[in-house]
Amino acid sequence: MTETRWWWIRHAPVTANRGRLYGQHDHPCEVEDPPTFEALAGLMPKDAVWVTSTLQRTTQTAAAIRERMAALTPEPEAHPELMEQSFGDWQGRSYEDVRKGDLGFWHRFWLAPAEVTPPGGESFVDVMTRVGDKVYALSKAHAGRDIVAVTHGGTIRAALALALGLQPEHALRLAVHNCSLTRIDHVPGPIGSHDPDQSHAWCVQYHNLSPRHLAEQGHRLARAAG
Predict the structure, then answer these.
(1) How are strands ordered across the β-sheet holding 200-209?
(2) d(CA 146, CA 196)
(3) Which helix (H) or strand (E) element contains residue 188?
(4) 8 Å CB contact between 156 and 8
(5) What is the pLDDT, as a whole number, of residue 1?
(6) Mean pLDDT, consecutive 10-residue segments, the chain of 226 residues?
(7) CB atoms inside a 10 Å sphere around CB 182
(8) In terms of DSSP H, where are the helices of the chain?
(9) The pLDDT value given to residue 93
(10) Prediction pTM value
(11) d(CA 129, CA 125)
(12) What is the DSSP secondary structure assignment for residue 114, as one 8-state letter?
C-alpha cells in the first residue's frame, strides 16, 4: 500500500477587520510569532509537496514556516479550490449582524447551516464538493508523497468530513484553530477500506493539535505512521 500523508495547517490569525466575517476577502495574517512557526517547521516532513489556497493569509503562513526549515522546500502550488467558504454578501459584515438573522440563518457553531447558501456565496456543502474533488486529484497526482496543505478552517473541516464520512452539518462541529496541525492519510486499494466502492481508505492521525504541544512531545505524534 502507498499512503499519501496530508499535513493540514490552518493559516495564522487575521488581524484586519477584527470582529467581521472575511470569508474569501484577501486579508493578510499575523506572522510575528516565531515560536509557533519554528515548531511547525520542525514538524514538517522533508521532500513534501506544498499547497496553499490563492489567498495571501495561506501563502504568508506557508512562507513563515518554510523560511525556518533547515532544508529547502519547493514553492507551494496555489489552488483556488482550497479557499475558504465564500459568504457572498455577508463578507465584511460583523458576526453580530449575521447572527441577528437579518442576513439569513446562522448556525450554533459556524455561520450558517451546511445546506444554506449565503446571498451571493456558497454553502458548506459546496465547499465539501470542491475541496473533496481537489483532495482526490492531488492524492492521485502525488501518490505516496507527503502533502503540506496550508489552508483555512472551512477547508480543513471539509477534508475531515471526507475522511470520516461525516454529514456536512456534523462537520461544522469540528474546531480548527489558527496554526493548528491536522494529519490525514490516504490509503489506496481495497485492503482495510471502509468505503462502499472499496477503492481506498482514510486514516485521521490527529486533529487540531497545537504545534508547540507536538514539539514538546518530541514529535511523537507528528511522526506517527510517517
Answers:
(1) 77-78, 49-52, 146-151, 4-10, 181-188, 200-209
(2) 26
(3) strand 181-188
(4) yes
(5) 59
(6) 92 86 93 93 94 98 95 92 94 81 64 86 96 96 96 98 95 95 88 59 93 67 50
(7) 23
(8) 34-43, 56-66, 95-100, 124-141, 153-164, 168-171, 211-216
(9) 86
(10) 0.89
(11) 6
(12) T
In this structure, the strands spanning 181-188 and 200-209 are antiparallel
**Grid coordinates belonging to 108:** 450554533
Query: Angle 124-141/153-164 helices, nearest 10 degrees?
Result: 70
Q: What is Dmax (Cα atoms) for the chain?
A: 52
Instruction: Say how many CA atoms lie within 13 Å of 134 toward its Cβ.
Output: 24
| CB-CB neighbours of 205 under 10 Å | 19
> What pLDDT sits at residue 102?
61
Cell of 131: 475541496
Domains in the chain and their CATH numbers? 12-143+161-181 (3.40.50.1240)
C-alpha cell at 181: 496541525
